[in-house]
Design a protein that fits this description.
disordered N terminus, ATPase_NBD, FtsA/MreB, membrane
């Protein structure tokens, strides 16, 4: 067993058992946004049905990862007066709610409002102030918001599949929870999740999720670049990318030849022979552009120095040959390919980087305790499974107490 799974990672049980899995090609979604309700609904139904058949049970509600809506991170602080009494859970709830109110906006929703540290009077850096005595309790918070409309359309699509949304979790947060080991999260690291339609970035420091961002570019954009550059059909371009694609040129690329059926050509026609170097240059241009944008976003976040030399790549598009090496050259840092950690019982097919966000959703209930759900009285997404006494917190407690 790999060393990361051989020792207990904090707040991850390693004992959650996956009893059913289903996956479908993404339909009706572009850059994380629902663009065709019917096609997206069909893909959700098929994936859930496959998981239900394997598990032998019926699914009623989902934890859903979200990368749409122009994710935006803010760091805020809030304080409440204690009057000299001991800090109780209700006091923590009050100060978290005070902080979350500062992140409210009429057109945006609070996806996460996370405590990154507490202060009691002049004492800073307190992880859990419960039971301590003081006059003023303060909290530093990471507020992550998103445009409301894409989130509501995603919930609508899931509701149309006769399912409810238990909680929405930002994709970069979920991926970081499953792909980073404790030392990386503690010392400071960035997790870059390269999906089909989006690339998301998360930064963890001192064991906390402190920054997130997203860009609407992913593996499907590489495929479409090949379609345009080689005049190939979409399915052929995807196959070529997976089987022969690379983010780095090699000395043999000019000699190696790939066969391409031109768009609109009959199957009986002879395919066009193209040097693999042509395909590699098309792929490399898009990959370098995406990584450069991610690097600049990390730098502008103010956490570039905190991240140090630790970058973890994950997501399905990160599995492209040569991508970690290309990222090392661009970032000038230690870059590794991340895979899901912290959950045992994964089938072999789900142990790759493409499943990092999905596994992170299984870990999320265990870390949701000090999170305020922000706005009330609006979308059901933000009312039900709170981190302050709701069903999700009870699930997290059960996992920690029973495993």
């Amino acid at each position: 067993m790999p060393s990361e799974e051989g020792r207990a990672l904090r707040q991850r049980t390693h004992r959650v058992k996956v009893i059913g899995i289903g996956h479908q090609q993404s339909q009706g979604v572009k850059s994380g946004v629902i663009v065709d309700l019917d096609r997206a609904e069909e893909a959700i139904r098929l994936a859930v049905d496959a998981a239900e058949r394997m598990a032998g049970l019926t699914v009623e509600s989902l934890l859903v990862n979200v990368s749409a809506g122009r994710l935006k991170s803010e760091t805020i602080s809030a304080s409440i007066n204690l009057g000299g009494h001991e800090v109780a859970r209700s006091d923590i709830d009050r100060v978290l709610a005070a902080g979350a109110r500062q992140g409210l906006d009429t057109e945006r929703e609070v996806v996460h409002s996370l405590a990154t540290g507490f202060s009691l009077d002049a004492e800073r850096g307190i992880r859990d102030p419960r039971g301590m005595v003081g006059s003023e309790l303060s909290v530093a918070m990471h507020i992550l918001t998103a445009d409301a409309a894409p989130l509501r359309n995603l919930e609508l699509c899931i509701n149309r599949s006769h399912l409810s949304v238990e909680r929405m979790v930002a994709t970069p947060y979920a991926s970081g929870l499953s792909a980073l080991v404790d030392d990386e999260a503690q010392m400071g690291a960035a997790c870059i999740d390269m999906g089909g339609g989006t690339t998301t970035i998360s930064v963890f420091a001192d064991g906390k999720f402190v920054f997130a961002d997203a860009l609407p570019v992913g593996g499907s954009h590489v495929t479409m670049d090949l379609v345009r550059g080689l005049s190939a059909r979409v399915e052929d371009a995807e196959r070529l990318k997976v089987m022969h694609g690379s983010a780095l040129l090699s000395s043999s690329d000019d000699r190696d030849i790939v066969s391409i059926h031109p768009m609109g050509a009959d199957q009986s026609e002879q395919p066009i022979q193209v040097p693999r170097a042509v395909m590699t240059r098309i792929i490399r241009a898009r990959i370098e552009e995406t990584l450069e944008i991610a690097r600049d976003k990390i730098h502008r976040s103010g956490y570039g120095g905190l991240v140090g030399r630790r970058v973890v790549l994950t997501g399905g598009a990160s599995q492209l040959v040569g991508l970690p090496e290309a990222a090392r050259r661009l970032f000038g840092r230690n870059v590794r390919l991340g895979r899901p950690l912290g959950v045992a019982g994964l089938p072999e097919a789900a142990k790759g980087a493409a499943f990092a966000a999905s596994v992170g959703l299984l870990i999320y209930p265990q870390v949701a305790e000090f999170e305020n759900r922000g706005r009330s009285g609006k979308s059901g997404i933000f009312n039900r499974a709170t981190g302050t006494g709701g069903r999700l917190q009870r699930v997290g407690h059960w996992l920690r107490n029973n495993f």
